[in-house]
């Protein structure tokens, strides 16, 4: 999959007249992130995540659309390239983004993450009114489960149990939420990149859509751990002027988030078993144990 992604990014660069580039791997997880030296660009190749989706091109199109909306509005976002695409090459979808350079592995603090998210929500509260609502809560759970089941990586009983949990988790958030905004969708510090001026910018916008602000707060408050998350929520409350959400208020959203993360692991385990098979197995076992009647 990595070799296919490298070929795809190289082909896109050539087709766009950027010359023959030798991509540098920045990250190889659900997507393959590649620096294209000499171009000022980074390529995002939808590899393992794309394989589990019915229409991966749709998600990258959404990502570029939201990136442009955010850039035009002045929100903290990694700018899409002028010819961001997405491009369909070698059977894979590729989008292009501004290369911010190396940040030395530095992560945003809870306060910095909170400030960036509060700024995103404030600037983009009314932007993208025609975008879908909570798209991640539907396809991004159902499609990986169905994909893994078709490939023989998820037995029928487990698939049925997770599908029931999906239906109940969706019902659990029906009608909830204090206000609708343009969500980042996956608002944790791993998706913040620092530019050369020291500003933290949001990347990885595939899950961005309209929806209740509580979804982003649930993600912020649970990643990468409870202590860091609670600190980020407290900082968000200070910056935004709203009360810190309680665990009870966020619980329905966290239930759906847990299922989304588990479904993603299951899908990635099909094509990247050496990295994701064990985490997926543990996540499924833990989730199943917590279901009624387990």
TrEMBL record:
What keyword terms does UniProt attach to this protein? Transferase
SUPFAM superfamilies linked: Protein kinase-like (PK-like)
Q: Which Pfam families does this one have?
A: APH
- Cross-referenced InterPro entries: Aminoglycoside_PTrfase, Kinase-like_dom_sf
Tell me where in this chain the Aminoglycoside phosphotransferase domain is found: 62-252
Tell me where on the tree of life, at the top rank, the source sits.
Answer: Bacteria
GO MF terms here are: transferase activity
Q: Which residues form a coiled coil?
A: none
Name of the protein in question = Aminoglycoside phosphotransferase family protein
Give the organism the record lists.
Ornithinimicrobium ciconiae
């Amino acid at each position: 999959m990595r070799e296919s992604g490298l070929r795809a990014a190289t082909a896109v660069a050539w087709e766009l007249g950027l010359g023959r580039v030798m991509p540098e791997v920045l990250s190889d997880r659900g997507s393959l992130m590649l620096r294209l030296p000499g171009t000022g660009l980074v390529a995002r190749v939808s590899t393992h995540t794309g394989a589990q989706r019915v229409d991966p091109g749709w998600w990258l199109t959404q990502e570029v659309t939201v990136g442009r909306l955010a850039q035009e509005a002045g929100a903290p976002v990694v700018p899409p390239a002028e010819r961001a695409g997405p491009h369909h090459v070698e059977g894979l979808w590729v989008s292009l983004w501004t290369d911010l350079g190396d940040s030395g592995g530095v992560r945003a603090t809870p306060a910095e993450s909170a400030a960036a998210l509060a700024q995103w929500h404030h600037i983009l509260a009314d932007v993208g009114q025609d975008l879908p609502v909570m798209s991640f809560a539907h396809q991004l759970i159902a499609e990986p489960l169905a994909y893994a089941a078709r490939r023989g990586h998820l037995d029928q009983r487990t698939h049925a149990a997770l599908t029931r949990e999906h239906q109940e988790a969706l019902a659990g958030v029906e009608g909830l939420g204090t206000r609708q905004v343009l969500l980042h969708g996956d608002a944790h510090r791993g998706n913040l990149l620092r530019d050369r001026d020291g500003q933290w910018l949001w990347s990885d916008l595939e899950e961005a859509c309209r929806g209740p602000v509580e979804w982003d707060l649930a993600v912020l408050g649970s990643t990468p751990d409870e202590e860091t998350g609670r600190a980020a929520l407290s900082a968000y409350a200070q910056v935004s002027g709203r009360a810190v959400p309680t665990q009870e208020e966020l619980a329905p959203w966290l239930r759906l988030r847990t299922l989304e993360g588990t479904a993603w692991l299951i899908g990635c385990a099909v094509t990247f078993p050496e990295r994701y098979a064990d985490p997926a197995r543990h996540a499924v076992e833990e989730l199943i144990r917590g279901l009624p009647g387990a």
